[in-house]
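Usage

Read records sequentially. Each one opens with the input sequence:
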Amino acid sequence: MQYKTLVKLLILVALAAVMLLGYFQFRDVLSLENLAEQEGKLREWKNANPVLVLGAAFLLYVAITGISLPGATGLSLVYGWFFGWIPGVVLVSFASTTGATVAFLLSRYLFRDTMDRRFGDRLAAFDRNLEEDGPFYLFTLRLIPAVPFFVINVVMGLTKMKTWTYWWVSQVGMLPGTLVYLYAGSSVPSLRELAETGVGGLLSTNMFIALAILGLFPITVKKIMDRFKRNGKHTPADSCGPDRSA
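and closes with the structure output:
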């Protein structure tokens, strides 16, 4: 076994172990019910150590999204309640994009070479299709709540999309959803109510409609842009007939 392959295998095993440990070790600690019982202490801790709390909250969100652990939606609601709408949006927006980029880079490092060896021709064709419209398609996927973000991170890591492009498109594309979730969390007076209501009860039908409309928006813009491109191919000279000045 080659050294590089062995390193990748060890990293993959380590990630799997961290995911399992994190899930079983912290699923009860970070549950809404347990956090609701610690509501007063959480407030006191934030008031006493605001910078430390912000840093810990940022790293926690990056870790959860970076190794694709479940619970990011619930954590977004808690952050909305804990930090308020605007501060929470800033924190979650950059933390979620950082975590997504970590997952993207891990997928690229661990799986890209293997996929290239097995599906080189198909993957090359996919990369060519992404050269022009890749950022737009990524932006569209980020606006559709039905598409799990961890799937986007893994699949896009198999492409040749530049890391900077992936970062800024994800930053912009995930912002509308972040605004919605953090607003929902900030509207809850206490964690106890959030725990009793549940994530599904808090996210109203109107919020899902808003997210669905956001998902349709880039598709509509794409169609309008394509129509302008087609119309631009017909120049005035084409429609005026032959030149009779000669």
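Summary fields computed downstream for this record:
- Confidence is low (pLDDT under 50) at residues 235-239.
- Residues 141 and 152 are 8 Å apart (CA to CA).
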